[in-house]
Description:
It is found in: Cell membrane; Membrane. With 501 residues, this protein is an alpha+beta fold. It has three domains: 2-128, no CATH class; 157-271, no CATH class; 284-453, no CATH class. 48% of the residues lie in helices and 11% in strands. The chain is built from 16 helices and twelve strands. It has helices spanning 2-21, 29-39, 66-77, 84-90, 102-110, 157-167, 199-210, 220-227, 244-252, 287-316, 324-334, 341-361, 364-385, 390-403, 409-447, 496-500; strands at residues 46-50, 56-60, 96-99, 113-117, 124-128, 173-180, 186-193, 239-241, 256-260, 266-269, 449-450, 453-454. A five-stranded antiparallel beta sheet has the order 1-2-4-5-3, sandwiched between helices. A hairpin with a 5-residue loop joins β1 (46-50) and β2. The chain is elongated, with a radius of gyration of 30 Å. 31% of the residues are buried.
Amino acid sequence: MFFKKKKTIVNKSMNQKNLDDKELIPVDQADFIKKMKDSLHNSADLNTKELQNGFTLMFFDTLTDKKMLNQDVLTRLEDANASPNEALKHITVSSTSKHKYIDDVVDAVLKGAVVVHSPGHPIVISAMVGTQENRSLTRPENESQVLGPQIAFNESLATNISLIRRYLTNPNLCNESFSLGKQTQSGIALLYMKGIADEDMVDRMRERIQTIDVDGILDSSMLVQLIEDNSMAIFPQLLMTERPDRACAWLLNGKMVVLVDGSVQVIGAPQTFIEFFQSMEDESVRWQIATFLRVLRVFSMIVSIFFTAIYVAALTFHYEIIPQTLLIPLGESRSRVPFPPIIEALLLETMIELLREAGARLPTKVGQTMGIVGGIVVGTAAVEAGFTSNILIIIIAVSALASFTTPNYMMGNVIRVLRFPLIILAGFWGFYGLMFGFCFLLIHLLRQSSLGTPFLAPFYPPRFADWRDSIIRLPIKWNNIRPEQARPVDKLKHNASKTKE
């Protein structure tokens, strides 16, 4: 207790020292204007307007709404006495603040506020009149689905928070605001449900956000790499979504949602490995269909990673596992191929990735045509020229097709990359190398965590209660317990017996 008290006293003294180092606002009007212009390096879009009654207004032309500035600030201040209290009474903008330090005034101007200085007073009033240039709400592009809401987040932090609040009209929805980036000062919002989310989890996320020291945060994908448990791992440990309904589902399960101003993706924490293969549409279809789709996605992931590697291992070392009826057509298909199976497979996988990347970077209509025509032309020409066998073309196509079933873009990229080291291991050591690669991936996943919770839950450690909404999805009336991974305070979603009645 003695050390804790001493630490508190030291922190208080440090905060007091930081406040003392701040420069107070000059009382003289000319000194205030000079200080503001020097702090903002005399920017060309910095506008200074002096009223006849003594008020001095400073704002950025490029950040303020001219109509709002004229109607709610300039017109209202023309007949007011030059004092901070009078300015507050007459300004009709909802968001106003008082400042006594010059640094706070500069920050307010940079965020789109107009600041009002009264001669002879060391207090400046700021009124937020920033422009609201937002993209209109559209359909989700990366997480499209047939059933369910058809609306996505946009780049405005305020709009994204309002979308979540429209779903969750609950006073227990907490919103904590942060500012990250020494140069960008990007707005960050941490949302969670009071009474459901675990306080220790919230404290851990809050601490990770506050301890970040970078020049700027431009997108939520950058923030993910700074707050996840192991940024060196190839597997992402936090999920991102562009769907407000999925973000609200996370909040209702006791998880947290982090939003970044200027980003259309929001972060959900904590997460498990199996959640990367779940879609929000699974909640909208019958439980039998949802279970089938989830099993199909997991099976497709296994096929995409191992199918080509098994082909290379079988042709290089283990002919005995190939059915006898398939040996003759396989031998005929490979009779003209001058490369060993490992080189053949790596060559085709690289060509597929080139076509996929070219289709993604080109304009939409050109990219689709490029992917289809390029795949057909290159594949046919490669077989006729003897660079590859037609059987491998089929295997590569199935592996590429299986990788598209993953509903999460980040996990889909991981699956694409993992195929290459496994093919190399299979080409050099056969099934022994393939088993080594599988064991390495499994151990790597077992060592991962998401915000301090096991990444492979509910399978390891086994939590049988959470299996009802993992690879399988039981009926909603039976799925009445929130996931144990988030350590929710309130564990029950609903009363199962009453729901059944």
